[in-house]
Amino acid sequence: MKKTILTAAFALTIAFSESNAQSHVMSQREQAEVIDQWLNDKLDITLPELMRREGIDMWFVVSREYNEDPVIRTLLPATWHAARRRTMLLLYDQGEGKDIEKLAVARYDVGRAFKKAWDPEETPDQWEQLARLIEERNPSKIGVNMADNYGHADGLNATEYNLLMEYLPEDLKEKVVSAENLAVGWLETRTPAEMATYRHIVGVAHEIIAEGLSEKVITPGVTTTDDVVWWYRERVKELKLDTWFHPTVDIQRAESEKTLKSFASRPDAEVIMPGDLLHMDFGITYLRLNTDTQQLAYVLKPGETEVPAFLEEALKEGNRLQDILTSQFETGRSGNEILRRSLEMAEKENIKATIYTHPIGYHGHAAGPTIGMWDNQGDTPGSGDYPLYPNTALSIELNAEVFVKEWGKDIRVMLEEEAFFDGEKVTYINGRQTEILPVPRRSTYLNP
After folding, report:
1. So what's the pLDDT on residue 267?
2. Could you give the count of Cα atoms lying within 13 Å of 46 in the half-sphere of its Cβ?
3. pLDDT at 7
4. What's the pTM value of the predicted model, to 2 decimals?
């Protein structure tokens, strides 16, 4: 009986939410046009700088259908959802003042950028044609996607590598090098065009978050945390968006004897009650860019008209930890060094801090400097040693453990917001949460 009531109530909240105003989401055709324009501009403007920074004058990316390199997905046009047969892309730096040559060792052009460079009637063997193209250009370094530290940059599988080495002449084999840092640079660098729109993308995510943490979705005493989680999944689909992970919604409450949230497993479903402090983790994918946000809401008790001041004070401690972290962002500083400096500063201010910030962009947990892990507040070898570069986006993810006298215990202020580092300062892409969301927003049911 209880399950039937919950399901019916949940259906009503979904129906009620459909009338909520929502920022514009582009059609699939409009999105494809934007994605392709961004890609072509990035290949022309950003890629030459990255290849020269890393000293690689040729970059070879290859994938077979259904076994895609994570990088190749970001090089394909919007109407290509995956590699076709064996897709070979060759990028060659022709020198200062010249464009990057963009070739597709394929029967046809790949989008507007990569021009066909293979005629199977003349050269039936695709690998033979690739070797010929490389030999004609005689690059100094041939970068391939092999990486120790980033799965994003480790997309060249053993079969493709062995075939490449089999077909290359001996004098070119010794020029094959890891393109790990080039691949990471390509994935992490945000262009002005992307950033002009990223605020809108994060804004859409913020609107969905706020709607889910409101009386339009939550009926105290009836709605469960899982109901809200699945409402988020359905809402994303209604808006013709995607998500890159399953959301979570969990509760901290005064009378609960449960320990603070464990990150090793998903929280159990619970019925949401007045007096609950809700925490959620949610992200969308739109225009090939991702969001990853954690925010807090409080369910007002009868007679309450606003979130209790002691909880708002706890949130301020979380905001202060954000400020401490972003104050340590400096071009060239490694993720490990940023973490160490931030934790030292937090300790001096008596903030019980846990920091686990990561880059964001084409992937949710994206390539770039790792700044702590939830289960490791020491150095992260490899990705933590990678330096912070300008024009990169990061999810400022962390928590402050705060003792709440009124509840007689510690709570975790868990926050996550998207930010942009321009080389000098950090800006939250669409602001950050500085006040806990009350549920309901309107005080229509409160006692006079």
Report:
1. 76
2. 23
3. 40
4. 0.90
Give the pLDDT of residue 17. 40
AA letter at 384: G
Calpha distance 232→249 (Å, rounded): 10
pLDDT of residue 204: 97
Which residues does the chain have with pLDDT short of 70?
1-21, 257-266, 442-448
